[in-house]
Amino acid sequence: MTTTDLVERTRRFVRDVVVPAEPPAGTPLEPAARRSLQRRAREAGVFAPHVPTRFGGQGLRLGEWSAVFQEAGYSPIGPAVLNCMAPDEGNMLLLERIATVEQQERYLVPLAAGATRSCFAMTEPHPGAGSDPAALTTTARRVDGGWAIDGEKRFISGAEEADVAIVMARTPDVGPEAATMFLVEMGADGVSIGHGIRTLETAITGGHPHVHFRDCVVPDDAVLGTPGEGFRHAQVRLGPARLTHCMRWLGLARRAHDTALDRVRHRELFGSPLAELGIAQALVADSEIDLATAAALVDRAARTLEDDARAGAQASSIAKVHCSEAVGRVVDRAVQLCGGDGVTLELPLLAFQNEVRPFRVYDGSSETHRWAIARRAVARREREVDAGERVLDRAEADR
Amino acid sequence: MTTTDLVERTRRFVRDVVVPAEPPAGTPLEPAARRSLQRRAREAGVFAPHVPTRFGGQGLRLGEWSAVFQEAGYSPIGPAVLNCMAPDEGNMLLLERIATVEQQERYLVPLAAGATRSCFAMTEPHPGAGSDPAALTTTARRVDGGWAIDGEKRFISGAEEADVAIVMARTPDVGPEAATMFLVEMGADGVSIGHGIRTLETAITGGHPHVHFRDCVVPDDAVLGTPGEGFRHAQVRLGPARLTHCMRWLGLARRAHDTALDRVRHRELFGSPLAELGIAQALVADSEIDLATAAALVDRAARTLEDDARAGAQASSIAKVHCSEAVGRVVDRAVQLCGGDGVTLELPLLAFQNEVRPFRVYDGSSETHRWAIARRAVARREREVDAGERVLDRAEADR
Amino acid sequence: MTTTDLVERTRRFVRDVVVPAEPPAGTPLEPAARRSLQRRAREAGVFAPHVPTRFGGQGLRLGEWSAVFQEAGYSPIGPAVLNCMAPDEGNMLLLERIATVEQQERYLVPLAAGATRSCFAMTEPHPGAGSDPAALTTTARRVDGGWAIDGEKRFISGAEEADVAIVMARTPDVGPEAATMFLVEMGADGVSIGHGIRTLETAITGGHPHVHFRDCVVPDDAVLGTPGEGFRHAQVRLGPARLTHCMRWLGLARRAHDTALDRVRHRELFGSPLAELGIAQALVADSEIDLATAAALVDRAARTLEDDARAGAQASSIAKVHCSEAVGRVVDRAVQLCGGDGVTLELPLLAFQNEVRPFRVYDGSSETHRWAIARRAVARREREVDAGERVLDRAEADR
Amino acid sequence: MTTTDLVERTRRFVRDVVVPAEPPAGTPLEPAARRSLQRRAREAGVFAPHVPTRFGGQGLRLGEWSAVFQEAGYSPIGPAVLNCMAPDEGNMLLLERIATVEQQERYLVPLAAGATRSCFAMTEPHPGAGSDPAALTTTARRVDGGWAIDGEKRFISGAEEADVAIVMARTPDVGPEAATMFLVEMGADGVSIGHGIRTLETAITGGHPHVHFRDCVVPDDAVLGTPGEGFRHAQVRLGPARLTHCMRWLGLARRAHDTALDRVRHRELFGSPLAELGIAQALVADSEIDLATAAALVDRAARTLEDDARAGAQASSIAKVHCSEAVGRVVDRAVQLCGGDGVTLELPLLAFQNEVRPFRVYDGSSETHRWAIARRAVARREREVDAGERVLDRAEADR
Question: Which residue in B206, B216, B370, D253 has the fewest CB atoms around it within 10 Å?
């Protein structure tokens, strides 16, 4: 099967099966409904598009994900139904890339099959690990036959429904700055769910609570990857996870835009269809431009990331900032074009807005990415001048 | 030679030879200097990159132009030096595609060699042909052995230095709505230069005057393409010409951005390099994003246009609007980052701004393109719903 | 007591009493809590600031409301506690201006005292009365001793808790285009609550349902104002109601901004307080500018509206568009500055965003107001030119 | 005469006399034409509106300037004709406030009469005094009977036509950080005009050159104000000068807006007047909003500055940033609405853009003002919390 086929099949499945099954705007998908829809997705051959076929998925390469994930994201529950929603999707990639065969058998296979759920436990309460990983406070210390983990994590999306967590911890026994990732079963002794952070998002089920680790002992084979290489391993997940968020939310933005187009096609104001009123046309055109630019950047970043991790980092920063802001604007314009139905839950648009708004903060805030983008731009120019390029800002007075 | 080689050669030629030879900011390139620089461009093997090798150029396909044209545009005089500036560049494309072999020999070969100049005489004084070609008022009537052209054209860029004009005229003898293009030598009887429109642009030399045709008789072989097919032929030129403007101005925007980067790298404010001040970083990052989005859209549109004229039209509209506005923002931010030198002619940035500002109006204004983009979006959705897609704007109250 | 005193007392009451009593972010104020807080507001002498003293309020003139309403709006429940929330507040103004003494005694006095609630039943399901009052479909027909009302209203804010509704109905017995307002008790025969529109707003309690009138007979003295003058009377309410929304949401935006300032004062990133990072400073400064511009426009519009209804209409359109958009931007920046706490309900900012977002649609959408503003601008210029001003757009070519 | 009368008289004079006498777009007013127009302004009783009547002006208080200056600014040459253009206007204020009676007689009286011109020599080549006055490098050292000034100033607007300069110099003989202002005649020994900075502005005639002082000896009575108080004295000029730029450019923005209104009133596109096309309406409405907000902020700042220098500083920073950006947007929209005539010199709009663009940099760049505005906002909030206000950013998890 070609990618194009899978895109088309996903498109039809999401629009014909998933969209009609959506819960009321602003409410999450119930577990029973998810299981039922996941079964239909498996039957339709659209389940787990990003997972290698040997682990039961559709086997797409990263550079091919965008169109499929956008189709999945056309429904806010689409990615969960197709089992390509965060945080599971990123965790599957990480397990595929760095887990042992035994770990893959034990954790990746059931996760890819939708039989289990997972979470990624990295972020900590301020001033712990957030934007700045160096501030990591959770520790794992060597004990007989394994490691004892202690610390508090926050905003651990999906934790309440997760079977397993990937936990980042400082491991001073490995090295003073060393951090290591561990696979920790959520039912293990010493793991408890804390304060539940309330959100207005619903696409990720299983809450966003704090998770406490108190003398939680795990065996040696719970180490994911190489001890001390936790941060480096996390990079494997980071870039793609950021882009898959872009892809999914871009799909949701297309849904919002199509909703607005349906509205402007038949709703009249002052005797003309909205679609022929210039102010509405300007909003529609700006959303078309935002969708086109975001899609072009995400495609470019995904292709770059396959080949060149370093160039991919800059490309994915740019794609992330632009896409997260563009989808917010597109949904906002759709809200505005749908008027009274837009600003209530008569239509799901305001709920979509609450889904996408946090993306301007998580996976690196717009401000943090802009800072990084600017620094890389300055460094790039520095290298060029060092290599002999003429300095360009010499004023006429100084010549 | 590969495209990559030509990009690199063009980059080096423009930065090492052209930039140092630029006239003072805001002043045009003198003809003698242009001839001299063009000779060096020929020697460097970077002349006429877009022209087929059989007509003396570098033979790039449209889908490969972008990187080379951006390098050319890094200097405001670069495209003229490389003989890929409007309006000649678009006229060469048109001659290549629809002229007879004799016409190509007579007009395209010397034009591609830089020995002659040309202009494109389509726009008319209001309410004649401007945004709306149906309003064309210039006529060409059958006379013995040829055609007599009468009418007034305006904003005919380059006309004062042009040897030949491509003139669009209504030809009622062909059909009531028929328009035809003619190759008219500027020295012919009945051709005169009228009111010179003053501009702040300098990249196109030869003025932007009105041109009058009064009983200007041309022979039958002056018809370019098929009689009556003038508007259809013009489309051949329109899409690519719009994109090459994008490419050139994108190159100029990169120059402005690099100038600003050079400034922020070493200029200090309140004891820190500007490059480390957040407000400057935000400006730099936004320009990086604008450059990346514009480049991605232009590349996509150029590739699309090679294969599919219809899809290319929508893609090139989106690219044109976004790029024309993005380059304006990038140059504006560079002006701001360079402070007092930015807002005077100590640096050429304000002159660059005056070069790119009109592009938000010509080749279809932002407003006209947004109108077209919105209409195509609505039509696309209309087709989807007609083909069975679910209408999405049904309110909860109506279910 | 001076206005300044009342501003200061309101400020202290809202910050010291109301803010600490707020329900969790995103949840409405319970009726019992409201009654208790209203009692304290009465004791503090800050209740019903906009109501004339003879009806039990603080007696402020419209031109003096802004500062007090902004202080009230500093808490999302502040205006309800102070009994100056929509729709009651606008209804009180209407009753004060056009009701009979008997109607005022019966409806205004208990409403001003907080003993009853009210709603304003004008909007209808599409294509009925929304932006375009001419489309009004609800009718009131003369019957023996009164009027029989039939029709459906939608988005009737507060209807579920209201004791009385002001209902706009077409009255063909008065005249072909005539509309009349009626005071209808919600418990009357023929009044029923229909579909409840779900919203993410909580500041107005009592829902936003559809309300059905089926052969609802009211006596003659239920007419509010003059029969047939319904639309003219509604104007009395419209301008001020639009501005009081501005004032209240401006207060809420100040609260969001202060929340962000508290965050940037002590939260560090990369070793510096956020308050010293330029990107954060740019966001803070833009919010300061938005708050200052919005406040200046609202003050100006309120003062103008006191003296000159016509000039006030233009001033209040401009104030409404700008303020509704500015408060959205200010809250959005606060969300962004507060990062992870901003995009969850750890802080109430996202809930504030959901409160203010609909204001870009109700009371005339941004698009409708822009249309009106542009038309008035063109008409103003038309009058100037008619009165002899020189036409300014003559091109050099035409001189 | 009331202010209203003067506003009206100025309006009529500028529109009926000055606008028709404007030189071609983008070219400066010739000295002879200026003198002739100034004579007519004197006869019309509109000359030097800001100068106290005892010095020959119209005697307006600062709080009343805005409307008159806006009318003056409706023509780019209006302020020069009315003798209320920078830098003379700010210099007159400074002389009025801090000069001795003898200095006023000698310098202010002829300056107010339009018989002489002046410049303000404070800015220096980087890294000297620019945004940061502490970096001042020009010095004045005590010599027998006076002071010897040495140093280089840059961007000294009007210097080539000026009779006298107000020069800021470091005076180490007064104190280690002390700076002092001097009145220096431009013909004095040791004063020479250096590199002329080319600009695209034309409203200030007399160039923007560097000015060199080499052992330029001035007598003791050349000290303006108190020795060592130079920076404090400069503040007297700074706030009002910033606001008068706002006022004048706001007037020019109104002119651009009226020009666009004239264009949209009669120019048709696709068979409708532009004025009825929504995209044009959106541009017109946004400009109305920008003009209204800018005017409201400038008025507020001017009134505040009369009473309270400290509050005035914050108000004038906000007004300056907003107004400088708003006028740029208004002119830009007018350019766009006038299409091909907008982006050439067929209309003066592009020249207006070049007049107003630098204002986002001089008198404190947008970035510097945003930085200052943010710092003052944080400090304001700091004081409030210190005085007992509740800290607002406490997260739910921390309660």
Answer: B206
